[in-house]
Design a protein that fits this description.
α4 crosses α5. It is built from twelve helices and twelve strands. The two termini are 40 Å apart. By secondary structure, it is an alpha/beta fold. Among the domains are: 102-172, no CATH class; 245-340, no CATH class. The strands form three sheets. The protein has a six-stranded mixed β-sheet with strand order 6-7-8-3-9-10, sandwiched between helices. It has a four-stranded antiparallel β-sheet with strand order 2-1-4-5, covered by helices on one side. A two-stranded antiparallel sheet has the order 11-12. The protein is 35% helix and 22% strand. The protein is globular, with a radius of gyration of 21 Å. It has helices spanning 49-56, 83-89, 101-104, 111-122, 127-140, 146-149, 159-170, 189-206, 217-223, 241-246, 251-258, 322-340; strands at 5-18, 21-34, 38-42, 66-73, 76-77, 94-97, 177-181, 209-214, 226-231, 234-240, 308-309, 315-316. The protein binds iron/sulfur cluster. Residues 250-251, 287, 289-290, 293, 295-296, 300, 305, 318-320 line the site of iron/sulfur cluster.
Length: 341
């Protein structure tokens, strides 16, 4: 599998002027996604993860937001493209699936016809050929008897099948990048695993890159090879899955990890992160996590920590030294390790 860079986001800022002040939904974000990556973006609601990807797709209203930085998709800056050029890229070279497939499918049209329409939107091919491609796509995403199920309406599909149909529609034009925004949140746990497997299979078979947006670090740990943890519009930690899960560096990442249930940690308590995310209009001075951080110390409420490698081998945005983080994380882990033994 090649490692071509598909998406390079550089110092992206998306600020919305409002009557109450400037909402800094994304504030200085940089990351890259290569072909073959499953790039997991994780954070609480309002952390900026969805706005980042909507902006990358050109779906953030430029009249309503001040957008700066660069979003390079295969070398072209999407922030400089007009609506028509963006429309050609969107759906064809970049595709997106959302949390609730039911709201994305028109209830009065047959599922197959909706996929045919999506194909014909970009490809001027005979309708019969588009129908054949739809059968193939439905089969490829695991819909049984695709020719029969082509004629079903969305309500005749289960939740998992609807998400499969959305993935089929997203793959209709062999995009290079698939953005999946909370694709499993509305599904039963058993179906969640199937959809995550399917996204991974589609990624490998079509040789694409995937951005997986989720509030659930457990989901990311299942499939992502790279992880970016976001808080208050910024990245606070970034690295490979092994780096972030094996040697987490940021107290917010620790909080997320401690809130994931583990079957092998039976008896240990889940620890919630105290407090709530800050208002994006009035983010705290210094480290934006400091009002919730049990490890804050002198500079935290004054100096804003930049995201950089502080000796752990991957970047984080926390003033604590790598050695101090190792000690504190081991201390926090001790009760869970004890409960598991
Ligand atoms: Fe906590 Fe300070 Fe690190 Fe922010 S910089 S996460 S407040 S220790």
């Amino acid at each position: 599998m090649s490692t071509e860079t598909l998406l390079e986001v550089k110092d992206l800022r998306v600020h919305f002027p409002t009557g109450d002040g400037l909402v800094k939904a994304v504030d200085g974000l940089s990351f890259t996604v290569d072909r073959g990556d499953t790039f997991g973006i994780v954070g609480e609601s309002g952390s900026g993860k969805s706005v980042t990807n909507l902006t990358a797709l050109g779906l953030t209203d430029r009249n309503a937001a001040n957008i700066t930085g660069e979003v390079l998709f295969k070398g072209r800056d999407l922030l400089k493209l007009g609506k028509e050029d963006l429309r050609k890229i969107r759906g064809k070279e970049m595709a997106m699936i959302f949390q609730d497939p039911f709201s994305c499918l028109h209830p009065f049209y047959r599922v197959g016809d909706q996929i045919v329409e999506a194909i014909l939107c970009h490809d001027k091919i005979p309708k019969k050929q588009a129908e054949q491609r739809t059968y193939d796509l439905l089969g490829a995403v695991g819909i049984p008897k695709p020719k029969e199920r082509f004629r079903d309406f969305p309500h005749q599909y289960s939740g998992g099948m609807r998400q499969r149909a959305m993935i089929a529609m997203a793959m209709a034009h062999n995009p290079d990048l698939l953005i999946a925004d909370e694709p499993t949140t509305a599904l039963d746990v058993t179906v969640q695993a199937q959809i995550l497997d399917l996204i991974e299979r589609v990624k490998t078979e079509f040789d694409i890159g995937v951005i997986l947006i989720t509030h659930d670090l457990g989901v990311v740990s299942e499939v992502a090879n790279k992880v970016m943890v976001m808080y208050a519009g910024r990245a606070v930690e970034m690295g490979t899955r092994d780096e972030v899960f094996g040697n987490p560096q940021h107290p917010y990442t620790w909080g997320l990890l401690e809130s994931i249930p583990h079957v092998d940690h039976k008896g240990s308590k889940l620890v919630p992160i105290e407090g709530a995310p800050p208002s994006l209009i009035r983010t705290p001075n210094g480290c934006s996590f400091h009002p919730r951080c049990p490890h804050r110390f002198d500079p935290c409420d004054k100096d804003d920590p930049e995201i950089k490698d502080r000796g752990a081998g991957h970047p984080d945005a926390c003033h604590l030294s790598a050695a101090e983080k190792t000690r504190v994380w081991a201390e926090r882990q001790a009760p869970r390790t004890k409960a598991a033994s």
